[in-house]
Structure formats: structure tokens, C-alpha cells
Amino acid sequence: MDTTTIDTADLARLNESDKAELRTFIEMENQRTKHQRMAHGMTDICWKKCFSSATIRSGSLDGGEATCLANCVDRFYDLRLLTLKHLQNSRTQ
């Protein structure tokens, strides 16, 4: 039996409170997945931008690498917030 699928008959047996709880859980899991994808994407983009080689030789970031990484992450989040604001404004118009 595949435990990742939900039988429609099982869903029909749930009361409204349980259905709402399940919808909330699924929505939260979808949000968590989106955030994880975003974090992985940001890590990949910033790593490629800020590090010239695939390894960190000294065991820690040098000043230029640390600054580049911090700026890259900041710009990534700035862009995400700007995009979200734009989408919210588009919905209200």
C-alpha cells in the first residue's frame, strides 16, 4: 500500500474540522517546500557568484567572500520582497 496517497473514500469520512486541519497542514507543507526551494536556489546562485573555486581553503570565509555572500543573500531577499509587494498590489487593482 502506498502511504503517500490519500483515498477519496477516506477523505469523505473526515468531518469538516478534520478537513480544515488537513487543508491547513497541506498548505503549510507547501509553503515549507517553497521556502526550502528558495533557500537552495539562493545558496546555489550565491555560491557560484561569490566563490571562485569549489572549496574553501582556509576553513573559513575570507573578507571578500563573506561580504559577497552577505550582499548576495540580502539582494535575493530584497528582490523576493519587492516581487511579493508587486504581486499584492496587482491583486488589489
Concise overview:
It is built from three helices and no strands. The protein has about 90 residues and is an all-alpha fold.
Properties at a glance:
93 residues
Provide a descriptive summary of the structure in words.
By secondary structure, this protein is an all-alpha fold. The chain has one domain: Orthogonal Bundle (Helix Hairpins). Helices cover 75% and strands 0% of the residues. The protein has 3 helices and no strands. Helix 2 (16-50) crosses helix 3.
Total DSSP E strands:
0
> Any idea how many domains?
1
* Estimated radius of gyration: 21 Å
Helicity level: over 70%
SSE topology:
Elements: H1 8-12, H2 16-50, H3 63-92
Helix pairs in contact: 2-3
InterPro entries: Tim10-like, Tim10-like_dom_sf
Subunit structure: Heterohexamer.
Membrane topology: Peripheral membrane protein
